[in-house]
Automatic annotation (TrEMBL), chain A:
Residues 2-246 form the ABC transporter domain. Keywords: ATP-binding, Nucleotide-binding. The lineage of its organism: Bacteria, Pseudomonadati, Bacteroidota, Cytophagia, Cytophagales. It holds the Pfam family ABC_tran. Belongs to the ABC transporter superfamily. Ycf16 family. One of its GO terms (molecular function) is ATP hydrolysis activity. It comes from the Bacteria. It comes from Spirosoma validum. InterPro entries: AAA+_ATPase, ABC_transporter-like_ATP-bd, FeS-cluster_ATPase_SufC, P-loop_NTPase. This is Fe-S cluster assembly ATPase SufC.
TrEMBL record, chain B:
One of its GO terms (biological process) is iron-sulfur cluster assembly. PANTHER family: PROTEIN ABCI7, CHLOROPLASTIC. InterPro entries: Fe-S_cluster_assembly_SufBD, SUF_FeS_clus_asmbl_SufBD_core, SUF_FeS_clus_asmbl_SufBD_sf, SUF_FeS_clus_asmbl_SufD, SufBD_N. Residues 185-414 form the SUF system FeS cluster assembly SufBD core domain. Residues 12-175 form the SUF system FeS cluster assembly SufBD N-terminal domain. This is Fe-S cluster assembly protein SufD. It holds the Pfam family SUFBD_core. Belongs to the iron-sulfur cluster assembly SufBD family. The lineage of its organism: Bacteria, Pseudomonadati, Bacteroidota, Cytophagia, Cytophagales.
Length: 249, 441
């Protein structure tokens, strides 16, 4: 589904991704771990199409198509979703209005009819239950004045609404208490299917108790330096990253 | 073609001559106090002349373009109700008055409020029918000693509206003044003049709307004087949506007494050169003024909002929010003055001006000016001018919303802080539609 090879990206004159390789197949969950500043969010942003980053080498294929050629909105329509590490406040636009616009744009791109107000509300009710989110939150300006937990939960709600093929969660677990964490994990797990894949970027193995990954990768200094089964996450939790750093040199 | 220096004075001479020609036709009426006042206003206009950018109040707003045009001072028109149909605001009910080239047209207008709720007459008619009333208010509030355009209007204005709301009355239907310039055949200048008095504990909603028909240039130089009695409440909206060849200079002068509430929104959608002066004197305790503004110039348009809130008495409150969206090579000016007089203790005054500049060719000049002479006051002001938020744009695009639509959605939301304040629903809806259209351009 997703095939990243030798990906290199810079911001300003700073090289952040330095030849990154990653293969994700449909049905899989991949966890990406790594110390602060390793380039995890950069990878997520490059995949979503943030223009601040310049890709200077390598390729990214999504279902055989050149992802790097696509505008961010095309990537979304093709089925990529990024749950932001720091969701952005959108003053004056409610989550409801925002999602209705987004969903119908995506449907338009796929040649599907727009959902009318009734259909949209029905879908929303269904997904609200899934992530245990309150209607009052959805009528407010998107992310404006939301608590950290509310923002993260709203990201998962958006994911549930848009039903992406590939979801990338960038530290969605940070700042969440155990209940919120479970809700987020439930949201992700409900979406798990043989046609979909998930990349979970996280610092802590805690989340991986709930979203059990097929593979764990360590991103360090702009490259995947180690990959392994889910047990690798436990090892990292125990030993930290120093041994990896030593190995990587 | 660059006109010679002498031609800059042509427009001024034309206006001075027009005054004298009028005067000769007046016979005995030229002795009236109102006319004497007009005469002194004309003298003042002659003395001041059109302002140049050396004038502090006109530093960023150059009226040279205006002076290069050749305007007819012609109130005649062949305009019919049919011509006006495309300009109609859908679903608008109420008292709708049409003024063409500054002159009131009863046959195009519709007055629906009973006369015990409100008396609405044309300025020309009121001047004949009740000169004492006009004399007791006309030019008592809008200063013509310093402002050349107000002096010009005071001297030359022949028509406009006079609205009188009696004490303890709520005018149920809004009053909509539609000023149309018929610039289909030639460039037209007009000088409308409005006087609104709202009695004690009375309430009224009013809107001024400005449109131009035709391809030629237009110049509207309007002055509106508003007097609010004790406990009076007024909603006042000024909507300006003229052509790329429109010059618009307007002053709204508001005098508030004890516990009166004034809510205003000034929305500038289109025009070549627009200057809105909104001056409010809070001349009573517990008086409150709310001022909202939205302007969205594009092309080479220029929009200048000058506001002045004069806190003259204790315990008064003012709150101001102006927002601008500037595109292409447009320019904007916001100058917000707040005076707090020595006696005006316990004043609360808030001012904010926020701008989004969409293109590197556009620019915005903001200048808050606070002059505070009392010590027990709460004042705050802030201005921001920046690009559209890239982070927000990316966030929206990453959810599948195309760039242009994301931009429109963000800017529309930005404008809503102002438009949502408009309580005459058909006008708000009309503005929301025009704003959306303009954002989509
Ligand atoms: N806008 C930026 N300008 C300059 N450097 C940046 C910018 N964004 C991220 N970086 C740098 O890139 C590196 C990787 O950052 P990031 O991808 O956020 O790491 P992670 O998510 O793994 O903690 C860090 O050294 C960070 O300081
Ligand atoms: Mg990060």
């Amino acid at each position: 589904m997703l095939s990243i090879s030798n990906l290199q990206a810079v911001i300003g004159d700073k090289q952040i991704l330095k030849g990154l390789d990653l293969e994700v197949n449909a049905g899989e969950v991949h966890a990406i771990m790594g110390p602060n500043g390793a380039g995890k969010s950069t990878l997520a942003s490059v995949l979503a199409g943030r223009e601040d980053y310049e890709v200077t080498g390598g390729s990214v294929l999504f279902e055989g198509k050149d992802l790097l050629e696509m505008a961010p909105e095309e990537r979304a329509a093709e089925g990529i979703f990024l749950a932001f590490q720091y969701p952005v406040e959108i003053p004056g636009v409610s989550t409801t209005n925002f999602l209705k616009t987004a969903l119908n744009e995506i449907r338009k791109h796929r040649g599907q009819d727009s959902l009318d107000a009734v259909q949209f509300l029905k879908l929303m009710k269904e997904k609200m239950k899934l992530v245990n989110i309150d209607q009052s939150l959805l009528s407010r300006s998107l992310n404006e004045g939301f608590s950290g937990g509310e923002k993260k939960r709203n990201e998962i709600f958006q994911m549930a609404m848009l039903e992406p093929k590939l979801a990338i969660l960038d530290e969605t677990d940070s700042g969440l208490d155990i209940d919120a964490l479970r809700i987020v994990a439930d949201g992700v797990n409900q979406l798990r299917s043989p046609e979909r894949a998930t990349i979970v970027v996280t610092h802590y193995q805690r989340l991986l108790d709930y979203i059990v990954p097929d593979y764990v990768h360590v991103l360090y200094k702009g490259r995947i330096v180690k990959s392994g089964p889910k047990e690798l996450a436990l090892e990292l939790e125990e030993k930290g990253y120093d041994w990896i750093k030593a190995e990587a040199i | 073609m660059t006109p010679s220096y002498a031609s800059y004075n042509d427009f001024k001479n034309q206006l001075l001559t027009a005054f004298r020609t009028n005067e000769e036709r007046m016979n005995g009426a030229s002795k009236t106090p109102v006319h004497q006042l007009r005469r002194s206003a004309l003298k003042q206009f002659d003395l001041l002349g059109f302002p140049t950018i050396r004038h502090e109040e006109w530093k960023y707003s150059n009226v040279n373009g205006l002076l290069k045009e050749a305007f007819a001072l012609d109130e005649t028109t062949t305009l019919t109700a049919e011509d006006l149909a495309p300009l109609e605001i859908p679903n608008l009910d109420g008292n709708i008055l049409y003024f063409v080239n500054g002159r009131y047209h009863a046959e195009l207008s519709r007055l629906v409020s009973p006369t015990d709720q409100v008396q609405i007459t044309s300025f020309a008619e009121a001047l004949k029918a009740d000169p004492d009333f006009i004399e007791s208010h006309f030019a008592h509030y809008a200063d013509y000693q310093e402002n050349a355009f107000t002096a010009l209007n005071t001297a030359l204005a022949t028509d406009g509206v006079v609205v009188r709301v009696p004490d303890n009355t709520t005018v149920e239907q809004p009053i909509i003044l539609r000023f149309i310039t018929d610039a289909r055949d030639k460039s037209i200048a007009s000088q409308p003049r409005n006087l609104i008095t709202v009695g004690k504990n009375a309430e009224v909603m009013m809107a001024e709307s400005y449109r131009t028909l035709g391809e030629q240039a237009s110049f509207v130089n309007v002055v509106t004087e508003i007097v609010l009695g004790r406990d009076a409440r007024m909603q006042y909206y000024k909507v300006q949506n003229e052509t790329e060849k429109a010059y618009h200079i307007g002053t709204t002068q508001v005098n508030q007494t004890d516990n009166s509430h004034f809510y205003s929104a000034t929305v500038t959608l289109n025009g070549n050169f627009v200057r809105n002066n909104l001056n409010i004197v809070l001349n009573g305790q517990h008086a409150e003024a709310f001022m909202y503004g939205l302007y969205m110039p594009n092309g080479r348009q220029h929009v200048d909002n000058h506001t002045l809130v004069d806190h003259a008495m204790p315990n008064s409150y003012s709150n101001e929010l102006y927002k601008g969206i500037l595109d292409d090579n447009s320019t904007g000016v916001f100058n917000g003055k707040i005076f707090v007089r020595p006696d005006a203790q316990k004043t609360n005054a808030y001012q904010s001006c926020k701008n989004v500049v969409l293109s590197p060719g556009a620019s915005m000049n903001t200048k808050p000016q606070l002059e505070i002479f009392a010590d027990d006051v709460k004042c705050s002001h802030g201005t921001t001018t920046g690009k559209l938020n890239d982070e927000a744009l990316f966030y929206m695009r990453s959810r599948g919303i195309p760039k242009d639509e994301a931009r429109t959605l963000l800017l529309y939301a930005f404008s809503q802080d102002v438009l949502s304040q408009i309580k005459i629903q058909p006008i708000r809806e009309y503005l929301e539609r025009v704003v959306t259209e303009k954002l989509g351009e």
